[in-house]
Design goal:
binds fe (ii) ion, about 30% strand, seven-stranded antiparallel β-sheet, four-stranded antiparallel β-sheet, about 325 residues, 2 domains, Rieske Iron-sulfur Protein, binds FE2/S2 (inorganic) cluster, elongated, alpha+beta, single chain
């Protein structure tokens, strides 16, 4: 079984009409382009004829990409439609084709279906409580590790008072309750409380109740996460897998506020970048740079969100 999922792979703004865009995702060189009707195409960049890069070719009026070497044209399904050397009217052999991936645009991201071809695809995953109308500011961050390590870092509570002791983890509250976890069909919500160490011992059997209508974290399979700050403000991360050792993180700071919104979003994003940099510096030291459910790390009971993530990733055979 390998059904798999829609993965957020690019920011929609990156793909402009008539400008083929070459990106490495899932360890493959993928050529993206936008057609006249605004739909997006994703093709394997390597020409099946003699291996030239289709990204260096030209987009035709018919929304096809013509290879820069011998101008064989490929349509949105990756099928060759014409081989100039044979005469444009000549029939094209069926095996002259490149792999294509289903792609779609939603919520300001480009989503690529990485998995089995299906007759009907499910809708792209998204946070139920984050409306597309909420304005945001976005930045990108390249991390030299597998996307699993990036995601887990955002589900890791125990690092907050340590790694972020001068920012969001101020106050030396190093003792952590068992987190509350609430699964839904998209992913899960989680939250915990932090306390100063006054000699108490955490009871790992006790799961204090938390209120998810306020500050909490949400993870949505397979690669998006939000920090729900309050109704009108969120930090969102999309972890786009470049290959086994690289991830491009798309970070957004959403804030809806009547006055000075763009300034608030500017500083909100700047602060989020500072936090992410603190995370980056320690995650880069983790070995191996990819995580798995069965990998021999000795996790703490409070790391139940990470365990849930690892288990779910294995069950769903995600990238
Ligand atoms: S290598 Fe692409 S058409 Fe020849
Ligand atoms: Fe962090």
């Amino acid at each position: 079984m390998n059904i798999n999922r829609w993965y957020a792979v690019l920011s929609a703004e990156e793909i402009k009409y008539k400008k083929p865009l070459l990106k490495r995702r899932f360890g493959e060189e993928i050529l993206f382009f936008r057609q006249k009707d605004k739909t997006i195409v994703a093709l394997d960049n390597k020409c099946p004829h003699r291996g030239a890069s289709l990204a260096h070719g030209e987009l035709t009026e018919q929304n096809e990409i013509a290879c820069p070497f011998h101008a064989i044209r490929f349509n949105q399904e990756g099928k060759a439609t014409a081989i100039p050397a044979n005469g444009l009217s000549a029939e094209v052999p069926k095996n002259m084709c490149v792999k294509s991936w289903p792609v779609q645009e939603a919520h300001g991201f480009i989503w690529l279906w990485y998995g089995e071809a299906l007759e009907h695809y499910p809708p792209v995953p998204w946070f139920e409580n984050l409306p597309d109308t909420m304005p945001y500011r976005e930045s990108t961050h390249l991390w030299n590790c597998h996307y699993t390590r990036c995601i887990e870092n955002q589900l890791d509570f125990a690092h907050v008072p340590i790694v972020h002791k001068k920012t969001i983890g101020r106050g030396n509250k190093t003792v952590i309750d068992m987190p509350m976890l609430e699964k839904n069909e998209r992913g899960f919500l989680t939250k915990t409380d932090f306390h100063q160490d006054t000699g108490q011992v955490v009871d790992h059997k006790k799961h204090p109740a938390h209120d998810f209508s306020r500050f909490h974290l949400e993870f949505v399979w397979p690669n998006i996460w939000q920090n729900y700050l309050y109704n009108k403000a969120r930090a969102v991360l999309a972890f786009s897998p470049i290959d086994e050792h690289h991830t491009l993180i798309y970070m957004r700071y959403y804030h809806e506020i009547p006055l000075f919104g763009s300034i608030v979003r500017h500083f909100g994003l700047q602060f989020s970048q500072k936090i992410l940099q603190e995370d980056h510096d320690v995650v880069m030291t983790q070995r191996p740079d990819k995580s798995d459910y069965h990998m021999g790390e000795i996790l703490l009971p409070q790391e139940s969100p990470i365990i849930l993530y690892r288990k779910g990733r294995e069950e769903q055979q995600l990238y």
